Amino acid sequence: MVHADLQNKDYVAWRQFLKDSDRWTRDQIADYQLRELKRVTRHAYENTAGYRALYQEAGVHPSDIRSFEDFRRLPYVDKEMIRDRLEEFSAPVEGRTHITTGGSTGIPCGMYRDPQSFAKELASKAHQYARVGWQEGDRQIVFRGLLINAPDRMEFAAKFNELRCSTYDFVPEQMEIYRRRALEYQPEWVRCYPSSGYLFARFLKETGGAFPPLKGILCSSEHLYDFQRDLLREVFKARIFIHYGHYEMAVLAGYCEHEDTYHVLPQYGYAELVNREGQLVSTPGEIGEIIGTSFIMHATPFIRYRTQDLAVFKGWGCAACERPYQIWERIEGRLQELIVTKSGRYLSTSMLNMHDDFYDRIKQFQFLQREPGKIVFKFVPRDTFSEAAQKDMQRRLLERCLNDVDLTLESVREIPLTKRGKHRLLVQELKLKFDNAALQQALQA
Question: What domains does the chain contain, in order, with CATH numbers?
Answer without folding.
Answer: 1-332 (3.40.50.12780), 337-443 (3.30.300.30)
